[in-house]
Amino acid sequence: MTTATLVPVFAALGDETRWNILAALGEGEASASALARRLPVTRQAITKHLAVLQEVGLVEPVRVGREIRFRVIASQLSETARRLDVIGARWDRRLAAIKQIAEDL
Amino acid sequence: MTTATLVPVFAALGDETRWNILAALGEGEASASALARRLPVTRQAITKHLAVLQEVGLVEPVRVGREIRFRVIASQLSETARRLDVIGARWDRRLAAIKQIAEDL
DNA sequence: GCCATCTGCATCCGGATGGTTGCACAATCC
DNA sequence: GGATTGTGCAACCATCCGGATGCAGATGGC
């Protein structure tokens, strides 16, 4: 679960490279080195990004022999979407109410 | 509609102050000056944030007399949530498939 | 045991970013 | 018409951030 606070999750998702990493991980678990081979960035850069993604619970490390692979935690994405949807709905209601009031004038 | 590219929207949502502004706008339309009065930041800072929010279609300016009020576009929030949910679902399927393969070994 | 490979840590760098201050300009209300 | 209030623009500042380099340490294959 680790329901991370919402804002940092969005901050993590607000970077193109991070999405590329997530997309690459969609093909299956991969280590930082492996990711560095198929993406146009250094391993160290990838490591930092993975740390950010792990911090907000979007990704999870798995030790395999001497390497550390990472896998996407899809549920965290869904959870974030759900929470954002709730917020959106709340605003919809509020705005609808305001509009109603305005029209009643 | 203005289906802004997803990543910049997340980047915009990845800032605490911006959420405070959105929350304040939830009470109803407000100008940059008005927001500056009830938030612990300068009007100019707020103006910049509003520009970012407007850029990604989360907020919309409305001219009222000599002031420019801003209102939240709730549909953009819902839309973003929907798109994120689709991505999450895709990952869920993919991960389920991978798990299936692993178990079949 | 040795070499190849993967990870970790520290440092450095340029650009973006959140924020401020200061000033000029526009419009509105009385 | 004048003072008040709202906006716009520019410069400046500190910090964060994405990224690169370099080097040291760990670990596994053969």
From TrEMBL, chains A, B:
PROSITE patterns listed in its UniProt record: HTH_ARSR_2 (PS50987)
Organism lineage string: Bacteria, Bacillati, Actinomycetota, Actinomycetes, Geodermatophilales
Name this protein carries in UniProt: ArsR family transcriptional regulator
InterPro entries tied to this protein: ArsR-like_HTH, HTH_ArsR_DNA-bd_dom, WH-like_DNA-bd_sf, WH_DNA-bd_sf
Domain HTH arsR-type: 1-92
Species annotation: Blastococcus xanthinilyticus
Pfam families: HTH_20 (PF12840)
Domain of life: Bacteria
GO terms, molecular function: DNA-binding transcription factor activity
SUPFAM superfamilies membership: Winged helix' DNA-binding domain (SSF46785)
